[in-house]
Amino acid sequence: MEAKATLKYANIAPRKVMIVLDLIRGKQIDEAAAILKYTPNKAANIVGKLLNSAAANAENNFSMDSDKLFVSRAYADQGPTLKRFLPRAHGRADVIRKRSSHITLVLEEK
User: 46, 99 in Cβ contact below 8 A?
Assistant: First the structure.
């Protein structure tokens, strides 16, 4: 049995989120929460909230034991990209890509 939590359209690039997800993949949820708490990163705060949501889904919806839960899968897919322009010299413009991501955490029991 597995419990899942998904966050869509997070305003952070997927490659920045993947760095944090690599830290917690395969860890118990207590250990993963401790790692996220002391990681100085915007993505760590977002993933921490998502981890709490996935743990609550596991306990309340699937009656899983929270002491046996671990992060079995964690991945970030690319969401839509917003395109903005930055004015430059001589009437030119550069494109700024504001990337978003869809983050998914899957918890399982050992």
Answer: no
